Amino acid sequence: MVNSLTKIVDHPKINVEQSEYDRIAKSLQYFEGKFDDVKYHNSDHELKTRPYMSINMMKVVAKRMASLLYNEQCRIIVGNDEKFKDANEFIQQTFSDNDFNKNFERYLESDLALGGLVIRPYFDVGQGKIKLSWCQAPTIYPLRNNTNDVSEIAIASVNQIIENDKVIYYTLLEFHEWVNGNYQITNELYRSEDKSIVGIQVPLTSYEPYSGLEPVATLENITRPQFVYLKPQGFNNRNITSPLGIGVCDNALSTLKQINDTFDQFNWEIKMGQRRVAVPEDLTSLGIDERGIKQPKQVFDSSQNVFIKMRGDSEDGFKITDLTSEIRSQAYIAALNNALQVLEMQVGLTAGTFSFDAKGGLKTATEVVSENSMTQQTRSSQLTMVDRAIKELIISILELAKAYEAYNGDIPTMGDISVDFDDGVVTDKQQQLDFFTQAKSAGFASTKLAIKKVFGYTDDQAEDLIKEINAEVPNEPAVTNVPSFEDGDE
């Protein structure tokens, strides 16, 4: 039993260095777009601060990639025969209850940005249904003796409450392990008055929301972990022995900083480049009002900040002088676009995906991605991981439901599950229509397959459309009274 922990990685079961979570924290800062204020000295040598203006390209990249990988048009089917009909219906209902399509695309952003995501099914006793918990990279801790395929893991959940006018932090560590061939989940609760320290171990009953948890729960007849660990495709070159994944922008942080710095300086130059006009001080000199109080003469509109009082007298020849400096818009825009091109190369997106101009700011290309483009190749690579994760999740859900007697059907293998990703996001529909039209004419594709691929229909939808098309085709009139030609007739 562990009595106290300073950091979660100090737990003897956890097999990851703290530096990995420092790296994730750095990526999280860029993903959230939270940076310290800029400190600078003004013209009077006074230290001032101002907000740092970030364009947050990590969020933009992650959102773009997530939308290319998965969206609500994707279809998941368990089996194609009666054997897995119950399994398919159970999964469709479970995914519907958990709004899986929408949540999966949303959490894919976090996975791609921070380098990892855990989806954990659990049985909600109150509803009698399987629910899905989404755990992001900062809360995922692979256990000792795991390197590549993570089969044991710890998930951290931190909550804070007020006790006797003090902020108290409770950290729940949920360990998923294999013990003597059975699947075991162990819950440990820690209490601390310091946010930077995990604290001392306390009973689960110390924190009311966890009072109903068992310290140890064992599941039998389980073949795979009751979680799915999804990480972006690509090797973790920051720590080659770490089981954790690496975000798609982790090797591009210097480029992201360059983009942010350029954008911040550009905005500051625009603000500082507003019109400034020097005027002689006698035009804003003080006068005596009827109450004997010195007041500035009302020469200019009191709400403007364009005019700056300078020492000098208009009678001595000091004229109103325009001090406005030209804003270097083109130079900043060119610098931003150059940095965006480097970023595209580093994250594996087609050149021209992102651009910046003076009218609309940051723009994302909406053109169709060609088959051999860098974006398409990156998508295909990432889909390998996503496809596997979804299939593993389905098996975990069905095994968990069977353990709680919420499902009694057969358990499919990964080969029995098909995930049809929406290729429409990267495919030219006209080119696709032309391709399948020619394939059907050549006898290489059926009408049903062509309709499914071009319109993204299911089998049933395609069959219904074929029936509608056939119903609209008028029947050919029967051919009668055909003359017979005898020899010699013309």
Summarize the structure in short.
The chain is α+β, with helices and mostly antiparallel strands. The protein has helices at 18-32, 57-69, 85-97, 100-114, 253-272, 329-347, 374-403, 429-441, 447-455, 459-472, and strands at residues 4-5, 38-41, 47-50, 75-78, 117-124, 129-136, 140-142, 153-163, 166-179, 182-192, 199-202, 216-219, 228-230, 277-280, 286-288, 294-296, 307-310, 321-322, 354-357, 361-364, 417-420.
Identify the notable features of this structure and list them briefly.
alpha+beta; about 500 residues; about 35% helix; Phage_portal_A118-type; Portal_protein_SPP1_Gp6-like; Minor capsid protein; 21 strands; single chain; 3-stranded antiparallel beta sheet; 3 domains
Descriptive report:
The chain is of the alpha+beta class. The protein has helices at about 20-30, 55-70, 85-95, 100-115, 255-270, 330-345, 375-405, 430-440, 445-455, 460-470, and strands at about 5, 40, 45-50, 75-80, 115-125, 130-135, 140, 155-165, 165-180, 180-190, 200, 215-220, 230, 275-280, 285-290, 295, 305-310, 320, 355, 360-365, 415-420. It folds into three domains: about 5-250, no CATH class; about 255-365, no CATH class; about 430-475, no CATH class. It is built from ten helices and 21 strands. Strand 19 (about 355) and strand 20 (about 360-365) form a beta hairpin. The radius of gyration is 33 Å and the shape is flat. The protein starts with a strand and ends in an 18-residue tail after the last helix. Mean pLDDT is about 85; it is low at about 480 and about 485-490. This is Minor capsid protein. It comes from Latilactobacillus curvatus JCM 1096 = DSM 20019.
